[in-house]
Amino acid sequence: MHLPTAVNRFATRALVAPLLSPTLPVPxxxxxxxxxxxxxxxxRGTRRARGDLGGVPTEVVAPPxxxxxxxxLYLHGGGYLxxxxxxxxxxxxGLAHATGTPVHAPAYRLAPxxxxxxALDDALAAWHALRAAGHPARRIAVAGDSxxxxxxxxxxxxxxxxxEELPGAIGLISPWLDLTCTAEALTRNAAADAxxxxxxxxxxxxxxxxxxxxxxxxxxxxxxxxxxxxLHVVAGAEEVLADDADTLVARARTAGTPVTYQRTEGMWxxxxxxxxxxxxxxxALRELGRGLRADCSR
Length: 298
Prior knowledge:
The chain is 37% helix and 15% strand. Strand 1 and strand 2 form a beta hairpin. It has helices at residues 5-16, 26-39, 89-99, 118-132, 147-161, 185-188, 201-208, 242-254, 279-296; strands at 47-53, 56-62, 71-75, 103-106, 140-145, 169-173, 231-236, 259-264. Helix 4 (118-132) packs across helix 5. The two termini are 34 Å apart. The protein has nine helices and eight strands. The protein is α/β, with parallel strands linked by helices and 298 residues long.
């Protein structure tokens, strides 16, 4: 049942945003976000199972079968500090139904206990496990939101640098790609974004990359974006990370990489996490799922 946009905006600002604030202890933030996500409704017929990908605990969220030949590897957001399959379950379920296939969400290690490159190493292990299970690279879409979008791009760059086969498609929701935290939208949209306060980002960077955020894998906006799989990008026009998505889309198109871009007016950071409650979230996931499914089913 969809709620009015204004109600979703208020609930995000009042209930979710405080759980991202560094003023709260990390364990409290993690537990609170998990409780919020786990309390939201899922589409009818959604199935869940726990498994393992390359030694990384993984939740699999699936629609009613039968499934196509493709699969989705999903890297959740949360500033590299918080977030899980539980906090993102409505989004995972919405994407599973939109793609018509299981979505695998690995519980990659989080900072500050496990700084970079632990999360990337886990994402790579999960990717290799899907490949070892018999799924061709071209049949796997890798997607993520916020920090998970940045992690998705880091994984893509690591695979390319290693000369490995690349995914069939990439999905990015409100990706956090510029860890220098200098984009103009951080100021321009600070008051409008119901989810994310830009003042919280530098402390997350310090926890995730205490040795510096200038490693090539952490700087996808500086990378050569030619020859990549199709990119499907979703962002809110009112979010503080809008410039990250805008810049990536522009540079990828200039490099000749296929790109679709849903830049939704009136929406805040990571709005598709409200799948099932927010009409714009469901529409964004339907379009994203359609693109990923088409690219990975050829």
